[in-house]
Design goal:
With 891 residues, this protein is mainly alpha-helical. The protein contains 42 helices and two strands. The N and C termini lie far apart (171 Å). Pfam families: WAPL.
Length: 891
């Protein structure tokens, strides 16, 4: 039965013929030959705009069934003669067209050429037939439709912009892939199984593209939809096709094996190569790290390892810390820029003050320490002119002194700064140029008026800045007590006193210390004389008394520095003579300091005893001014011991002051009197707080040190000069003397007794004590008593009468035993010290560098005192004298 066409189909064909852009007249045989009338379906491609519109809108397309029906009918006609653009395509058989094969015909067969005229598939309908066995493969192949290289991040956007020819080709490729999904396809260009079909399909696509008018065709993307998961690699990490192909490049030339082969042959960079390329092991100080190219990494020949790969990996904490340090220094860059010498003085002052203000914050100081900020800040401050001593840069000098004091809070930071070539010398140079009249912070502490400050070289602008700096040091610095007088000298001496001993050079630094100490001690002799007249020992600080007030804290710092330098000095006495020539009145001022410090620690407002016991009140034990006074006294006694050791000139200078012997004897008596009450008698439960009890123990230890130092100084004087034996015999002292104003030069108490008897009483108390430390003190006093009674019959009679014992022979025997025990202890101690020194000197281990520095200092002190065994010789001479005296005594 011959199939006819409905009116609907006829209208569709007529409408398509009327819309044909070719404008060619219909052949005269069109009404008679139906197949020729149906040839006009070949121009159905002109309905592409409607199809494109459907792509932009939705997936509903206009009449795809009629189009497929018409194409199928015309393709089955035996007398089909195509004209126009499709003539070339009709001449060559399409490998996808199975109409010529009778065995391939089926009512369900769909002509693949229909996909060439439709840019989208018809709407899918639910299929009632069971799924085919190749569904899994099809679902896997369907994943290639979402490749980023073809569809991008938004597939719809690419479909909208792509021309219909590209979409049609892509659809044909997918249909071709689905038709051959059941077998592994070799898609290389050299493969004989794939070259001919691909070539035919490519040729058909070229014919269709050439026959389609409209916009110029874009270059087709290399189709990767035929990619399967079989082959050499099943990895999804394959190289994606290049989307930027040239117009004349055939997409089929880019094969799958080429992309997969490239991806498989290129090795990934190792972790070591990445570290080298990104400069992980390079220094953080170099921001421009050299990067190695990937070609060099891939072509590197195995063998010699690159430098640095054997280093341990840096922890994330270290990397984070370095990052924070670099960011911290970047944030502080504006301060460093403000200190540039080309800037105005006001800008440099403001930047310097901002630096010390930030350093007062503990958190900022911690970050500055981690970032090595202090060393950079010191260098920049120095380059800005700070520390040069110019009056125009007075604020910068004071800021630099405060900066060094803030850095001295941490010994590690101070040690690092002291390693700089000019750090220590610059601080000493600044200290050498300062006194009460030139110290700007000292003048600000005195509350001087503007005219007085102007005469001192401080303008109103500088006064405001100095006032701000003064408040900062007192309230934010946390270095000193609120009652302390702030000065540049104090800031510098505080820093220098905390320096390592190895940083001090006695030949260069000791003269500066002596000059600064002598300048600070200059008002004390007059103040001690005024104190005996009823005036204040140290007046209140104001604009009228600023030249008479002393800073005990600064004095203590200078004394500690002088002690370190004296311990490290040579054995000859040339330096002592130079010191005396440099500051002739230094011996007298040191004795006045001892008297003033002892008086400040025992005046009525500080020492008040309870009415029902001998315990001093808590304010005496924990008051910081009392502690500072004791520290000054001990430091002064140490310096005097070093200066008078086997030095006749210093001994004569000290003994020429009438305060020397009464003061030393009073120190011995009062120290022994107050110490047993703190050591032997303990407070009952609840009488005193725990912190006060600890303060009592510290106070007792300080009194023991004071007693030993006073005995050592007296021993040095007696050992060198014979005249002192006669001077002591004329001094009277009350063992219970409180050390009031009247008793400064001479004890005026009612119950006075010879000073020799007071010494014998102290010796008796030491013999009665069971404390191990007291046994050392009684041995030392036995040597001192033996020296005092040598060739002095009067002293011998007074001392033997006051010594404990039933007879003089028994008393002398006790002196001999104690002196012998002390001498043996002394010899053993010096031998152990010498052995320790030798071991430390022979040891070349760098880990003991710090101990080595201490050993050198100890060798300097003990070496000068004990190197020639003079002390042992003196002690043995005393023992020999006492033994002979014991044998010659019969009562």
């Amino acid at each position: 039965m011959q199939r006819t066409y409905s009116r609907r189909g006829r209208r569709t064909v007529s409408k398509s013929a009327d819309s044909s852009p070719e404008g060619s007249p219909e052949p005269p045989q069109a009404s008679q030959q139906r197949k020729k009338r149906k040839i006009q379906v070949e121009v159905i491609s002109q309905a592409a705009p409607a199809s494109s519109t459907s792509l932009k809108g939705s997936r509903n397309h206009t009449k795809p069934d009629s189009v497929r029906q018409t194409v199928a009918t015309s393709s089955n006609a035996s007398q089909f003669k195509a004209t126009g653009p499709l003539r070339r395509a009709a001449s060559e058989r399409n490998p996808l067209d199975k109409s010529g094969d009778p065995s391939a015909e089926s009512p369900t067969t769909k002509d693949p050429l229909s996909t060439l005229f439709s840019s989208s598939e018809p709407p899918r309908r639910p299929s009632l037939s069971p799924q085919k066995s190749g569904g899994i493969v099809k679902r896997m192949l369907r994943r290639t439709r979402t490749e980023s290289s073809i569809m991008g991040s938004d597939p719809s956007a690419h479909v909208e912009d792509a021309p219909e020819e590209t979409v049609s080709i892509s659809r044909t490729s997918r249909m071709f892939g689905l038709a051959r999904a059941d077998s592994i396809i070799d898609l290389t260009l050299d493969s004989p199984s794939s070259s001919s079909p691909l070539k035919a399909v490519s040729q058909s696509q070229e014919d269709i593209l050439s026959s389609s008018p409209g916009k110029p065709a874009r270059p087709a993307l290399a189709s990767t939809s035929v990619r399967t998961y079989a082959g050499k690699s099943r990895s999804f990490l394959v190289t994606l096709p290049n989307p930027t192909l040239s117009l004349d490049q055939d997409p089929s030339q880019t094969t799958l094996d080429e992309s997969q082969g490239d991806n498989l042959e290129v090795p990934r960079e190792s972790y070591t190569d990445l570290r080298l390329r990104w400069g992980v092991d390079n220094s953080e100080d170099d921001p421009y790290v050299g990067l190695r190219s990937s070609e060099q990494n891939m072509n590197r020949i195995d063998g010699e390892l690159p430098p640095g790969i054997m280093n341990d990996l840096k922890s994330i904490s270290e990397l984070r810390s370095k990052g924070e340090s670099r960011r911290f220094l970047d944030e502080m860059g504006y301060l460093f820029e403000g200190l540039d010498l080309s800037n105005a003085t006001a800008v440099r002052r403001g930047s310097a003050l901002e630096i010390v203000t930030k350093l007062c914050d503990n958190d900022f100081a911690r970050r500055a320490k981690a970032a090595d900020f202090l060393g950079k800040a010191w260098d920049i401050l120095r380059s800005a002119g700070a520390g040069d001593g110019d009056k125009a840069r007075m604020v910068l000098d004071s800021t630099l002194a405060f900066f060094a004091a803030l850095a001295a809070r941490d010994p590690v930071d101070l040690t690092e700064l002291s390693s700089k070539p000019e750090f220590v010398d610059k601080l000493f140079d600044m200290l050498n140029k300062l006194d009460r009249s030139t110290d700007s912070l000292w003048l600000m502490s005195c509350g001087m008026t503007d005219p007085m400050l102007k005469r001192a070289g401080i303008s109103r602008t500088e006064k405001a800045l100095m006032t701000e700096l003064h408040k900062m040091v007192r309230k934010k610095g946390g270095l000193f007590l609120n009652s302390e007088i702030i000065s540049n000298r104090l800031l510098l001496s505080y820093t220098l006193a905390l320096l390592p001993r190895s940083s001090l050079v006695p030949s260069n630094h000791l003269p500066i210390i002596v000059l600064s100490l002598g300048s600070e001690l200059a008002p004390l002799p007059d103040r001690v004389s005024a104190f005996t007249s009823g005036l204040a020992l140290i007046p209140e600080l104001d604009s009228s008394t600023h030249m008479e007030v002393v800073s005990l804290n600064h004095i203590d710092n200078c004394l500690r520095l002088a002690d370190c330098c004296l311990l490290a000095r040579g054995a000859d006495g040339e330096e002592d003579i130079n010191i005396l020539q440099l500051k002739k009145d230094l011996p007298g001022t040191l004795i006045s300091l001892c008297v003033a410090a002892d008086t400040l620690s025992r005046v009525d407002e500080y020492v008040e005893y309870k009415s029902n016991g001998t315990w001093p009140c808590i304010c005496c034990l924990i008051d910081p001014n009392i502690t500072l006074a004791h520290k000054c006294l001990e430091s002064a006694l140490r310096v005097l011991i070093n200066l008078t050791h086997d030095n006749r000139d210093w001994c004569d200078r000290i003994l020429s002051d009438k305060l020397t012997l009464p003061a030393i004897l009073r120190f011995i008596v009062i120290s022994q009197r107050e110490r047993p009450s703190l050591v032997q008698s303990g407070p009952q439960d609840g009488q005193i707080a725990q912190h006060a009890e600890e303060a009592q123990q510290e106070r007792a230890a300080a009194l023991l040190d004071q007693l030993c130092l006073a005995l050592g100084l007296l021993t040095n004087l007696v050992q060198v000069t014979e005249e002192i034996k006669d001077l002591i015999s004329h001094i009277a002292l009350d063992p219970s003397c409180p050390g009031t104003q009247e008793c400064v030069f001479t004890c005026r108490c009612a119950s006075t007794q010879p000073a020799l008897s007071c010494l014998a009483h102290v010796y008796s108390q030491q013999c009665a004590s069971n404390n191990d430390l007291d046994s050392v003190v009684q041995g030392h006093m036995a040597i001192l008593i033996g020296l005092l009674i040598q060739r002095r019959p009067y002293n011998q009679a007074v001392l033997l009468d006051a010594l404990p014992g039933r007879s003089n022979r028994e008393k002398l025997h006790g002196l001999v035993e104690n002196a012998r025990d002390f001498t043996n202890f002394y010899v053993n101690f010096t031998n152990k010290v010498a052995e320790s020194q030798q071991e430390d000197l022979d040891c070349g281990n760098a880990d003991e560098a710090e101990d080595g520095r201490d050993t050198v200092d100890l060798r300097g002190s003990v070496g000068q005192v004990l190197r020639d065994t003079k002390g042992e010789t003196v002690a043995r001479d005393v023992i020999t004298f006492l033994e002979g005296l014991e044998l010659s005594t019969y009562d």
